[in-house]
Design goal:
By secondary structure, the protein is an alpha/beta fold. It has 21 helices and 14 strands. The strands form 4 sheets. It has a 5-stranded parallel sheet with strand order 7-6-5-11-12. Strands 1-2-4-3 form a 4-stranded antiparallel sheet. Strand 8 and strand 9 form a beta hairpin. Helix 17 crosses helix 19. The longest helix has 25 residues. GO terms for molecular function: arginine-tRNA ligase activity; ATP binding.
Length: about 575
């Protein structure tokens, strides 16, 4: 995939500045920023040059601007800044043609070609439901994976299930006490059994010890215990896959902590050789210097059973050996920051250099979604509620003539899921946010529904205009509002690269809002001035040019929404 128009002209501007100043382009690349739209598209400040050149910044800027000649750019000085504006042509045609030709692939690139990223995300526990609190890891991880795929990376997405540990012992002994043999493959029944068992274990140490003993049997490869574990695990995975299919999310691998059952002893032996281990109150810990009040890294409990940290160390080593990754990303809540700091510290102490390519992609909490009793809020319940609320809005808008659709139920599902996804992804991932039904389903706010409506509006304009034109005259698109839409479209490839580099899908979400707002401003111009209508009568070449811009907008909106995992309805 070729370099985007925006990146091409920016690189040419940087190179021209570097040659004029006699320095490497890398020295000034970070200093070239987007300009105030009133002054251009790119801007370079000359303040840092004043001391060396013994000139005032405005004088330096004037000299540079006079000498720089870059095809496709109009370069001028504005006080201490050297500003560059993309020429109407060929920039306008390049952006429109790229968006229309690439469709939902628009914004992608090849910076990840030949590279592999391993993604660890979602990660529910077996014999427990996927709760709403899993939504952040799931949708953020899915979006980050999509961003890397768009840039040419080979993505190895891993749903790393919590399928090993005492919690399964609770399910097993709970089933012995409360289970119905006829419902062994009923996920809802297993959840009910787990809740009862967990409540009892908190009150009865003897029952809790039975659960621990069952887990010890699993680690000792007891055939009966493992058979029951396998059956319950498969029941859980079937239910998980049903939910992921509804969300439109897939994983390259569904693995679990159990995958490393026979790989932990070699890792413990390696840690013993390289870092050192010691006993602490009967438990085996990594012999590291710890800060005051910092809990140690436990490899084995005093009863000999392994822990999450042990399995994560084995998983990190195994994933590098299997995939030879260029990046390994863990999309896990900020609450687990200490765990990952310690995990990376142990790997570094072991001499495992690949740890430098491992990143904890942390995220904040969701507030405002809880029950009065403090029970877990199931993700399926939230999805059903979103669809139900969206359906009520769809039907109301149909009655008022604001929406046209042949399938209100399907549209409500798309809007409901889009609301959940975008309600999360528009926020910086490291921050907390408050879930609010009225806010996320608002058709005129900063919501998924607003963006889906913008996409559907563009599709409707194209239908009314006779379809997307095969040819058009880009030189006719001279209105400031048309150029504002164009420049918003042009930025997506840059935004995708930045979002992938920072593992920050909110960059794409914010870009989508910007493009939708610019397109709305442009489209509504025709309400005040008939000459500015997209579907202009009496000037067919101008109408075709505006339809081409509308088609490019549609394609760009679809590309951005698809990256975030959000559906793109054509009728709303």
């Amino acid at each position: 995939m070729s370099t985007s128009a925006y990146s091409h002209y920016r690189a040419a501007f940087v190179e021209a500045l570097a040659q004029s100043l006699g320095v490497p382009a890398s020295e000034i690349d970070a200093q070239v920023k987007p300009a105030d739209p009133a002054h251009g598209d790119l801007s370079f400040p000359t303040f840092p040059l004043a001391k060396a050149q013994k000139k005032a910044p405005p004088a330096i800027a004037a000299g540079l601007a006079q000498n720089l000649k870059v095809p496709g750019l109009e370069i001028v000085a504005a006080g201490p800044y050297v500003n560059a504006r993309f020429s109407l042509l060929p920039f306008t045609a390049e952006v429109i043609d790229a968006a229309r030709a690439q469709g939902t692939r628009y914004g992608g690139g090849d910076s990840g070609a030949g590279k592999t990223v391993v993604m660890d995300y979602s990660s529910p526990n077996i014999a427990k439901p996927i709760a709403f609190h899993h939504i952040r890891s799931t949708v953020i991880g899915h979006a980050v994976a999509n961003l890397h795929r768009a840039l040419g990376y080979r993505v190895e997405g891993i749903n790393y299930l919590g399928d090993w540990g005492k919690q399964f012992g609770l399910v097993a002994v709970g089933f012995q006490e409360y289970g119905d043999p006829a419902k062994r493959q009923d996920m809802a029944h297993l959840v009910k059994v787990y809740v009862q068992a967990n409540q009892r274990a908190e009150k009865e140490p003897a029952f809790d010890e039975r659960a621990r003993d069952f887990f010890r049997r699993m680690e000792a490869n007891d055939a009966e215990a493992l058979a029951l574990w396998k059956e319950f695990r498969e029941t859980s995975i079937r239910d998980f896959l049903r939910i992921y299919a509804r969300l439109g999310i897939r994983f390259e691998h569904i693995e679990g902590e159990s995958f490393y059952q026979d790989k932990m002893e070699p890792v413990i032996a390696e840690i013993s050789r390289t870092v050192g281990v010691k006993q602490s109150e009967g438990a085996l810990i990594v012999d590291l210097p710890y800060e005051e009040n910092e809990p140690p890294v436990l490899l084995k409990k005093n009863d000999g059973s392994t822990l999450y940290a042990t399995r994560d160390l084995a998983a990190a080593i195994d994933r590098h050996e299997r995939f030879h990754f260029d990046k390994s990303l863990y999309v896990v809540a900020t609450d687990q920051s200490l765990h990952f700091r310690q995990l990376f510290r142990v790997l570094k102490a072991m001499g495992r250099d690949f740890v430098e390519r491992m990143v904890h992609v942390n995220f904040g909490r969701v507030h405002g979604m809880s029950t009065r009793q403090g029970n877990v809020v199931l993700l399926t319940d939230v999805l059903d509620e979103a669809r139900s609320r969206a359906l009520a809005l769809v039907k109301n808008n149909i009655e008022e003539g604001k929406i046209q659709t042949d399938d209100p139920e399907a549209l409500a599902e798309q809007i409901g899921l889009g609301a959940i996804f975008f309600g999360d992804l528009k926020n910086r991932r490291a921050t907390d946010y408050t879930f609010d039904w009225d806010e996320i389903l608002n058709f005129t706010g900063h919501t998924g529904a607003y963006l889906q409506y913008a996409h559907a509006r563009a599709c409707n304009i194209l239908r009314k205009g006779g379809g997307a034109p095969t040819t058009y005259d880009a030189s006719r698109l001279t209105l400031p509002e048309e150029q504002a839409v164009l420049r918003a479209i042009a930025r997506l490839p840059v935004v995708v690269q930045e979002a992938a580099d920072q593992q920050e899908p909110s960059y794409v979400a914010r870009w989508l809002l910007d493009l939708a707002a610019e397109f709305s401003r442009y489209y509504t111009l025709g309400n005040q001035d008939r000459a500015k209508r997209v579907l202009l009568e009496g000037d067919e070449p101008l109408k075709q040019a505006r339809l081409a811009l509308t088609d490019a907008t549609r394609a760009a909106l679809a590309a951005g929404l698809t990256l975030l995992g959000i559906a793109t309805p054509e009728n709303m």
